[in-house]
Write a structure and sequence with these properties.
Elements (H helix, E strand, L loop, with lengths): L2 H11 L14 H12 L10 H13 L3 H14 L4 H13 L3 H14 L4 H13 L3 H14 L4 H13 L3 H14 L4 H13 L3 H14 L4 H13 L3 H14 L4 H11 L6 H6 L2 H14 L5 E5 L5 H8 L4 E6 L2 H13 L6 E5 L15 E6 L11 H12 E8 L2 E10 L1 H4 L6 E2 L2 E2 L13 E3 L7 E2 L4 E7 L8 E8 L4 E13 L5 E3 L11 E12 L4 E8 L4 E4 L1
Parallel strand pairs: 1-2, 1-4, 2-3, 4-5
Antiparallel strand pairs: 6-10, 6-11, 6-13, 7-8, 9-15, 12-16, 13-14, 13-15, 16-17
Amino acid sequence: MNRKERRRARKQAAGGAEAGGAWVPPTADAVAGALLQHAAGTSPLAGADPQAELRIAVGHLESGHPGEAEPHLQAVLEVRPDDPVAMQLSGVVAFELGRGEEALERLRQAVATAPDYPEAQHNLALVLLAHGQAAEAARHFRQALDLRPDYPQAHLNLGNALRAAADFAGAQAAYEAVLEEQPDLVEARLNLANVLRERGDDKAALAEYDRVVEQRPDYGEAHHNRGICLGELGRQAEAIAAHRRALELAPDDAEVAFAFREAMRQRVPDWHMKMLADAGRNDAFAQALARQVRPGMTVLDVGSGSGLLAMMAARAGAAHVYAVEGIGELAEVAREVVGANGFADRITVLDGRSTELRIGAELPERVDLVVAEVFDSGLLGERALTTLRHAGQQLMQPGGVMLPASADVYAMLVSLPRWRSVNPVADIAGFDLSAFDRFRNPYTYLQCDLASEPHAALSAPFHVAHFDFRDPPPPVRSRTIEVPATAAGEVHAVAFWFELQLDDAVSLSTAPGRELDHWRQAVQFFDQGRSAMPGEQLTLTVGHTDTRIYFEL
């Protein structure tokens, strides 16, 4: 993990707020305490001045030069290896220099040596959070707060850890605690707005975004997230304006550019009918539900749509099924469908998002099985990871059944000459139509049926990613791979598909030539392609966020 990736991991863990992942140096009292021990002669520093060494190290860290801080900390630790101040600072340095396991070890040692040291608890929690260990991070943030209740940064980062663990209610409470003490802390207010949006309260979230951009008009992250919120509220023109402002403030940010272009792009949701007509998909889910549902089980159908999967679960013997649907009109139709098929007494259709559901309110208790078909042709475009992470951690019984259980993504490099003429849009029928390209989103993928589309495969299929939906991965991961070309041609795009493992016996695949109708394959074009020769190694970056898989050539 390089420095850029470590900072991105801390920023992601912080929910996008700039101050959320900041290191906390030792307090003046903590440094003074350590220095008094040195001054008392308990551990003479072999000619070095401990006060100077520690102060120099802190100065280097605060100025962003961890490598220059390291020798000063080593000088302290050589003569006093159990010094918790130097130990925890050396853990911070190790993390900044890419030595993650060493950082955890040193910070754990600091906490074990001085459990009443709030900065060590806080910084250990930050490293744990950057490593995806949100639950343990939250525990150490709480310990820091027990030691120092007036610790707004620990409150802020506790919220970030709870948010990463999909405990949105707990995260909201933590951010609100920060704002009670520091109402002008815009990073806390931005994170509060983000978690309100994730809980489905877009109106309250928008009010908080408005306060942030009013207080800090140049805060690009706030304009970006405000635009997403406005889009979810159906206020598309305002969303585009917000995304445009965010892009002006951060012209090189790919995620900001993606959101702006997504707001510009108009979509017709015709996939509902295609999905219902996909017999292969329907049969696979029916088989898996018949295998996994047991008498007496309660089932949650996430993104129920027509209620089809909910009725399959009821037919398989579920005692009760809760079908949650975020689009009100669809939920109303689902109630009619459920009633018409005689399941009104065993299926409850709930309006809203699954992330809004509360145990003891909409759901009497945690369910035994979660079934969700929230996948697009690119697998993640319907917020599958966010939805399933929350459902598994907050709504399902420990050891419950997640259906589907996992997915694997595969890809290959392709030439698609017919589609290349509009990716990007350029000369059409002898006319320059390049201005029309602003309505295309170059950062996203398109649905394609490779079996019927003229194309040339320029590589063999290769594995991209594995997703265990019972324990979804952190939202940002990327890696670089070498892909050998198998044929000569112009690399226009990456075509990719997925295999869903519904349970240990039932699976379905969207690979080219399979019988599934509505998913087909996804294709991401490269605006700047390149020629390839057989045997040539092509370097490809592959990664994913919570909402998309992406490729860079």
